[in-house]
Design goal:
The chain has 417 residues and is an alpha/beta fold. Helix content is 36%, strand content 23%. It contains 15 helices and 13 strands. The strands form two sheets. It has a seven-stranded mixed beta sheet, sandwiched between helices. A hairpin with a 7-residue loop joins β1 and β2. α3 packs across α4, α7 packs parallel to α8 and α9 packs across α13. The protein is globular, with a radius of gyration of 23 Å. The structure holds zinc ion. The site of zinc ion (ZN) has 6 residues, from loops.
Length: 417
């Protein structure tokens, strides 16, 4: 193995991390008062998660010893935190502040934190709680919605210039479907919002921009945003049909989940609307072949699909890991600080891709045609990020799978200095 891989070993959250040390001390300090412990524990767990920039806090009872194991998801990776005593009291307190039924411990519940007596950190716009019964008692996941102030417009996403200008070109179109693809947690929504802000900024007052989302994650001034509400019958299908009568120019559909939604989305894209949506698919080629599998007619797909972006988030290597120094406060000893996006992008209307679509080719064949037509793949993007010292090979393998180590990719990895 090369020298570089030696420093890529995943570091656990450093025990000397001041934030976690403080959390441990706070938990210990309040242990002598059973009455106030749960309140203080929940407050300090949430505060610590916010300070660490965690997207999720997990509290899991792993045995019947009354302890919760805490974990924090930071930049996409779960990191261990301290064990928390009085499990049932702590979960119960969490349920109180998020409006859940404390006496129901046998069913999953979802709520949002309304008030916990202290201010939310400035980046956190909302906190949601989900509980789930397990063999050893209830577990809870607390999700933090972090406002993406730093990724406001397309240029801020930090994608390569060719991808950025491809996106900008697509946004200038007046009809067609632009899809943002990737697995859960790959930053699709952040990208979608950047595109919407861009559209609103460049077409102020000229284009009627409407959205149907589940849920609305950030407000954008000047855009009519709506939220799916299953209880009252406002489904994607119903909402989209009604939206079409609102004279829209641009429609953002939160996600294409089923055939019915896909049908309306493609119809809208074919009838003079610019439609943006997200789609759960690993790559551009997989997105195209999965849409065919969802019974979207190949000729509809070929005519309507105007741009497909597939993206991933990679953790950015911290100076301390790069320079093999001691764990530093910048990354809380994790070796990575923040994330950046990489993407593959295709405008599928070239002759060769059209043919693959009409032939109902599988993802592998579509991918080969896309690469031939000049698309730079996610793996290639990831490897050049490694070359530029922005991230590590192990991080690429974590996100994209061991395929990054395949022999086909070997020549693009430069030797270590
Ligand atoms: Zn560091």
């Amino acid at each position: 193995m090369s020298e570089r891989t030696e420093i890529e070993v995943e570091r656990p959250l450093a025990t000397e991390s001041p934030l976690l040390a403080e959390l441990g001390k706070t938990l210990e300090k309040h242990l002598n008062s059973r009455e106030t412990f749960a309140v203080e524990a929940v407050n300090s767990l949430i505060e610590t998660a916010e300070k660490l920039g965690a997207s999720d806090l997990h509290l899991v009872p792993e045995s019947r010893d009354g302890m919760l194991v805490s974990r924090f998801r930071i930049n996409g990776v779960l990191q261990p935190g301290p064990r928390v005593p009085l499990a049932a009291n702590v979960i119960s307190r969490l349920k109180v502040i998020s409006g859940l039924l404390t006496y129901r411990t046998d069913v999953p519940q979802e709520g949002r934190v309304k008030s916990r007596g202290t201010q939310l950190q400035k980046d956190v716009s909302e906190i949601r709680v989900s509980t789930f019964p397990t063999l050893h008692g209830e577990k809870a996941v607390v999700r933090f919605f972090i406002g993406s102030e730093e990724f406001r417009f397309v240029r801020d996403l930090g994608l390569s210039d060719d991808v950025t200008s491809g996106i900008e070109q697509s946004l200038g179109e007046t009809s067609g479907l632009f899809l943002i693809c990737g697995p859960a947690g790959s930053g699709k929504t952040t990208t979608a919002y950047a595109l919407l802000r861009e559209l609103q900024n460049t077409a102020y007052g000229i284009r009627n921009i409407c959205t149907l989302e589940d849920p609305v994650e950030a407000e954008i001034a000047g855009i009519s945003q709506s939220q799916v509400k299953i209880d009252s019958g406002l489904t994607y299908q119903l909402g989209l049909r009604s939206l079409m009568r609102q004279d829209p120019d641009v429609i953002f559909v939160g996600e294409i989940r089923d055939r019915e939604t896909a049908e309306i989305v493609f119809q809208a894209a074919l009838t003079g609307h610019l439609v943006l949506s997200t789609f759960h698919a690993a790559s551009v080629a997989e997105a195209i072949s999965r849409l065919t599998d969802m019974d979207v007619e190949p000729y509809v797909l070929r005519s309507a699909l105007m741009g497909v972006l597939a993206q991933r988030l990679l953790r950015r290597i911290c100076q301390c890991m790069q320079n093999r120094q001691e764990a530093c406060p910048e990354c809380n000893g994790l070796g990575y600080s923040g994330r950046f996006a990489i993407a593959e992008f295709l405008r599928p209307q070239s002759a060769s891709i059209s043919r693959e679509i009409l032939d109902r080719s599988d993802a592998r064949e579509i991918n080969a045609a896309a690469l031939k037509s000049g698309m730079i793949s996610l793996v290639q993007r990831a490897l050049s990020a490694v070359e530029q010292g922005e991230t590590t090979l192990s991080e690429c393998a974590r996100v994209l799978g061991p395929c990054v180590f395949s022999n086909d990719n070997a020549p693009t990895i430069s030797p270590d200095p």
